[in-house]
Amino acid sequence: MIFTKQQIVSAMKETGFIPLLSHNNPEVSQKAMEAAYRGGVRVFEYTNRHSNSFEVFDQLLKSVESLPGMMLGIGTIMDKETTLKFIAAGAHFIISPILNIEMAPACHEYDKLWIPGCATLTEIVTARQQGAEVIKVFPGSVLGPGFVKAIMPVVPDLQLMITGGVEPTEKSISEWFGAGATCVGLGSQLFTKEVFEKQDWTRIEETVRYVLDVIKRVKQKTT
Asked: CA torsion, points 92, 83, 181, 190, in degrees to nearest 10?
């Protein structure tokens, strides 16, 4: 299944929520992703943090074919070589915790959405100049909603994805979207240790539904 960059950006804006999964077991990862899909998400990030991440991601790409409309990207990509490796595997989009401009032409060549991680206004402007349509603000726990609110008037029309420091609560989500976030990412607070120990896939599904509902209500208030 192939998605355009605009389709992915539109889905990110519509749902406002991207689950961030990090796990080294292919079967567990697949079940977690399917639970999130049932909850209503259509953009999903698997993070490249394990020695077998490529193999796990490859299996997720196969299973996503049975999830209509699901867009699967790879996160924690740090360099051009790894970018090209995952693009060749079939990643729908590439996310990085850093700004490495060598990754930009690699993604542009294959018409893949590149979402670099930035922590300063200079990095954000540089990322924009390199063709980034969506920019990851990381770490959100350090920068805070105040950072986003302060830079929005300086660089109009920013589309920001916030990760790190986002909680599945109405207060946290309201603060980030109120500041100007386009979407938020949730990792360990969605895919908790307890969820994996109990293989409580229903809990993932319910949390996703709750977060999507909160985002919908918050966005209605801010528009």
From this structure: 70
